[in-house]
Write a structure and sequence with these properties.
The structure is a homodimer of 264-residue chains. The first copy, chain A, has helices at 14-30, 51-57, 64-67, 70-76, 159-167, 181-199, 249-258, and strands at residues 2-7, 35-38, 79-88, 94-101, 107-112, 118-121, 124-127, 140-143, 146-150, 172-174, 202-205, 209-210, 218-219, 223-225, 231-234, 241-246. Chain A is α/β, with parallel strands linked by helices. A 6-stranded mixed β-sheet of chain A has the order 5-4-3-2-1-16.
């Protein structure tokens, strides 16, 4: 199955983000991708501590940002992962929510980020919990012949989530992200590859790149990792692009036959 | 604290293994290391499927292979990790057991490998459970001002063990190993770095190198990883050597202050 990661740079103009994101998704679909993935906060990106403007950008699911992709999924009969949008929650908070659209153009899964980013990097304090509520449900979804387990960005630091997915029969792990450059350089590739190796599953990680004008520079390097832990495709450190790759159930089967005691 | 990993190639001559191992440990101690680590099966290495000869090599703890190191720890007032010996168990089985000797020359901890290697690599089937019984106790031990959590080789594929150690206040994770070259090239560095990053702890991983004459080539690359996930020292792919490095509690504290939500 041909897959495509949209490496993207979003900011605070939702209409512009949406226009550019639908354009890149359409291009990936036109080039034959059957599963196209957008990164975290693709429709609005402002830094986790800007509670008020995040609240203004929040939408229900489905809302306009999700609905904009229904016709594309339908037209191309392909699945889409909207890495995350800011989903309206109660009391001035939001959820950081991934939405999967199936090849019929309907929502087939929704995942609210469970682990909220909490970091002190140099003089910057980033506490996602100031603006967001955590999700509490792990979510798997059928993507063609694969089953995928959903996660977002900072979740990748918590290996137990991915082991639960593997025990539920998942062959693909999605990690749409907006990793900081600083932590990305130190941790991004290692953690993505470790999740693949520990679960002998594909990891698909579309990433934000560049800056949103208010926040911190993102790491780029959108990445596809094989079930044996090889990086089979990787985006650049800078600039938007579409990263294509292949996923193949036989590779999952082969890795799991080599190390039969891993998933339990 | 200066530490030393003994990158070692053992085979089926226990007396020779022990003579060479005590010699290298003495050299590391004489060069000022306060904590010296030997790899998995340093006193007898024969491939996990050779049940009978493993049984013949098995010892109680403490037995001759452990006692041989008491005088060195005493003389230099330093801690030693005997990465593993073949410990006698019932019914023709053995345990794969790490032993820690404290700076007074006494045993301060013992850990029996919990996850037994199980792999089909090309035409080789390796099933440690054919010769060994699994341990069932996680083990932490004081090493100078640090607390260490013990594990062995294939354990490194199971992240939950290390998270339990982090929750128990551990700052150092030990992973003495005899990794195959094939899986080592694909997974060794990534998994060691991931365990450090996930737990913001040092990882100390002394490794076997070369072949034992009956088994499979070992990966070498004995490795020290910082709590931020950097490889600060690494052995070669081939040949015995002593890999020196420093560990520093302030580095653990700094990493944990940067990402305060990780250990919970």
């Amino acid at each position: 199955m041909k897959v495509a990661l949209i490496q993207f740079c979003s900011a605070q103009d939702k209409a512009d983000n949406l226009k550019r994101a639908t354009g890149m998704v359409q291009e990936a679909l036109a080039q034959g991708a059957r599963f196209v993935l957008l990164p975290e906060v693709f429709n609005f990106r402002a830094g986790a501590d800007n509670k008020q403007i995040l609240q203004e950008a929040a939408e229900p699911v489905p809302g306009p940002s999700v609905r904009a992709f229904f016709p594309l999924a339908q037209k191309y009969k392909a699945c889409l992962l909207l890495g995350s949008i800011i989903e309206k929650a109660g009391a001035g908070y939001a959820y950081n929510t991934s939405v999967v659209i199936d090849s019929g153009g309907s929502i087939s899964a929704k995942y609210r980020k469970i682990h909220l980013f909490d970091a002190r990097l140099g003089d910057k304090i980033i506490r996602e919990a100031g603006s967001f509520l955590p999700g509490n449900k792990i979510t798997t979804v059928k993507i063609g012949e694969f089953r995928a387990g959903l996660s977002i960005c900072y979740d990748v630091r918590f290996p137990g989530l991915y082991q639960r997915y593997a025990r539920r029969g998942v062959e693909v792990l999605t990690v749409p992200s907006c990793f900081t450059k600083k932590t990305g350089q130190a941790h991004w590739e290692t953690l993505l590859r470790a999740r693949a190796i520990e679960n002998l599953a594909y990891v698909l990680a579309p990433a934000q790149v560049g800056t949103d004008g208010r926040g911190i520079e993102a790491h780029g390097h959108s990445m596809i990792v094989s079930p044996w832990g090889e990086v089979t495709a990787c985006g650049s450190p800078k600039g938007q692009e579409i990263v294509f790759g292949q996923i193949d159930l036989r590779e999952v089967k082969k890795a799991r036959q080599s190390l039969p005691g891993i998933i339990k």
